[in-house]
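Students often ask why we bother encoding 3D structure as a string. The short answer is that it lets us treat folding as translation between two languages. Here is a chain of 118 residues written in the first language.
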Amino acid sequence: QVQPVESGGGSVQAGGSLRLSCRASRSILSTFWATDFSWYRQSPGKQRELVAGISTGGSTNYADFVKGRFTISKDNAKKTVYLQMNGLEPEDTAVYYCNAKYSGNHYWGQGTQVTVSP
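And here it is in the second language, the structure alphabet:
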């Protein structure tokens, strides 16, 4: 019921870039410092998969298929998490979801569509 909000999706040509933003919900705002954030994606016919994650301490991890191309970061003052996506490929086409984990609960955004054309 309580959801983060993603933005920044769109359609780009292969090789292009997009920056996704995840704005923390009201409930997350008060505990942003104790919240882990991740970006997932799901394309038609495939299971949702982890793209990148960032811990409360700022440590990051990435799926192999995006290493060197995507960067996850967060602004603690703005309480916003970002996913900078460079060198986009058609295979990156998917709905991208922001996940916030706090106190054992997962909060999912509605998702934002990313479409990469050849």
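Translate back mentally: The helical segments are 26-29. Keep this in mind for the problem set.
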